[in-house]
Amino acid sequence: MKLLKNLTLFLLTCILTTSLVAQSNVKSFSFKKGEILDILLLTTKSDTNKDFDKYKKTVFPVGLEKTYKPLPGFGIKETTQGNIQPTSFILGKWNDLKNREQFIAEIEEKVPDFHIQRRNIWSLFNLTYYEMPKDISFKIDRSKYNVATSYWKKDAASFKKFTELWLKKSTVKGGKKILQLTDGKSPVGYYHNPDLLVITQWESKSAFDAFYKENLKMNHKGVLHVNQFVLN
């Protein structure tokens, strides 16, 4: 009887542990209409702990006053397309566009060395922010193979056909669309504003690679530029 009790307790512990690990792998995000999603592509310089401590003490309070909320971020495992190689894919939230843009307009007055601080810490700092057109929720499961793809258009009609086919091929090959964003904005000095950003989830690297090979063969006539990153 005691052995059975211990075995039951062990099994329950295993189930609970497995469940907690699974939950820790899944990051959930929720936005109301009008809220702002920041997406930052960063590469942090080495030996910048002191600089970042100063940044947290001087810049963060201004952001928090303007309703900024940090969200779970992701490392970047690999750049698969494009000309930049950031190491971090960072997300943030603001209550509304007014607060987001007031921060940009007022930060130098409150923190005169704001841009210098950023340059001291990051060798790459690209920012796009999006106003949510409706309530939106999404989850990113770290245990899956997640890919963020950004496209810029050269010709509107050709680009529309390309992206529609891209999304269709992605779905057929097993890609799950987690998030699709358009109509972003970028502040001066940190410009990175794609016409389309899509995060897709794949069961494995091999599943994504099968789509990737087809993607490269597509007609890119309407595409001006692309960046693509595998998230950790």
Written description of the protein model:
The protein is an alpha+beta fold and 232 residues long. It contains 7 helices and 11 strands. Strands 2, 3, 4, 5, 6, 8, 9, 10 and 11 form a 9-stranded antiparallel beta sheet that branches. Strands 1-7 form a two-stranded antiparallel ribbon. α2 runs antiparallel to α5. The termini are far apart.
Mean pLDDT: 91
Radius of gyration: 21 Å
The percent of residues in helical segments reads 25-40%
The main pleated sheet reads as: 9 strands, antiparallel
Tally of strands: 11
Class inferred from helices and paired strands? alpha+beta
Count of individual helical segments: 7
Instruction: Indicate the proportion of strand residues.
Output: 25-35%
Uncertain residue segments: 1-23
Backbone shape: globular
Measured between the Cα atoms of the first and last residue, the distance is 45 Å
Order of helices and strands: HEEHHEEEHHEEEHEEHE
